[in-house]
Specification:
Elements lengths: L3 H5 L7 E5 L2 E5 L21 E10 L12 E9 L7 E10 L9 E9 L10 E9 L14 E13 L3 E9 L15 E10 L7 E8 L7 E11 L2 E10 L2 H4 L3 E10 L1
Antiparallel strand pairs: 1-2, 3-4, 3-14, 4-5, 5-6, 6-7, 7-8, 8-9, 9-10, 10-11, 11-12, 12-13, 13-14
Length: about 260
Amino acid sequence: MKKNRRITRAFRLAVAAFALCGLAATVASATPSTQIWIPSTDIQPYKSFHLGFDTYIRANSNADGSRTAPVVVIGPTVGILPYPKIQAEVGFDVISAGGDLDKYPLYFHGKLGTPEDTLFKASPAIAVGGYNFGTKSGDVRNGELATTQNLVYGLVAKNLPVIGRLSAGYFTGNKKVLLDENGNSDEKGVLLSWDRTLTEISDKLWVAVDYQGTNSALGALSFGASWAFAKNVSVILGYDIYNEKRTGGENTVTMQLDINFP
C-alpha cells in the first residue's frame, strides 16, 4: 500500500550556510514532491491540494561556536492535469532562514510525469521538472545575493518486489549560484534514492534514503522515516548529512508535516 505522503508530497527545502573567500551566505530552496531531500517521481493528483510545513535544525554548532538559525518553510502544491497517464503539479514555498535572503522568500517549482506501467508493461515512472526558481537574481561568485538556483532534473523510478522503490536521475542548475567549497561552479549531479513502506510492521510506516551529488550547498545524503497519523496527514523525521560542510554547513535534523486536501 502506497503512503499518501509519498503519492502527494509537495514540500522540499534545502538550506545551508557556507563561507567562500570570506563571504558568508545562506542558500535556501523549495521543491516539488520529494523523498526526504531530493525530488521524487510522485506527482500531486488532479485538483488535490497539498500543504507542507517543515523545519530544519542544525545538529551541531558551527566551528566558531555560533549556531545557524533554524529554517522554516511552508507552501502549497496543486495537481493540474486530469489525465491518469500524464500528470503535473505546480506550487510555491515561503522560506524563512534568518538571513538576508529572507527579503526574497518566494520560490516556485513544477513537475510533469507518467506513473509506472504507463508507456508499456513494467515501464518505470518518469518525471521531469524544476525547482528552486527564486525571485532574486545575481552572481554569488561575485558576492551578490541570489535565490535563482533554477534546477531542472529528470528521474526514473521502479518498485521492485520486497526491495522497494529505486529511483535515479540527474539535475543541473544555475552555475552562478551553486558553488563548491572553492567558489567554483558545481551545479550538476546525480539524484539517487530508495524508499519502501514497511508493511511487515504497518502500512503507516515508510522509510527512505536519498542522495544529491554535488559539493554545493544542495549536496547531501539524507535518511528518515514517516508515520501516517491519518489518510491525509503524515510526519517525517529525518537527518541530512551534507557532502561538504564548508558549503552545506553542519548536519540538520528535519521534521516535515504533510497535509493533503481532500
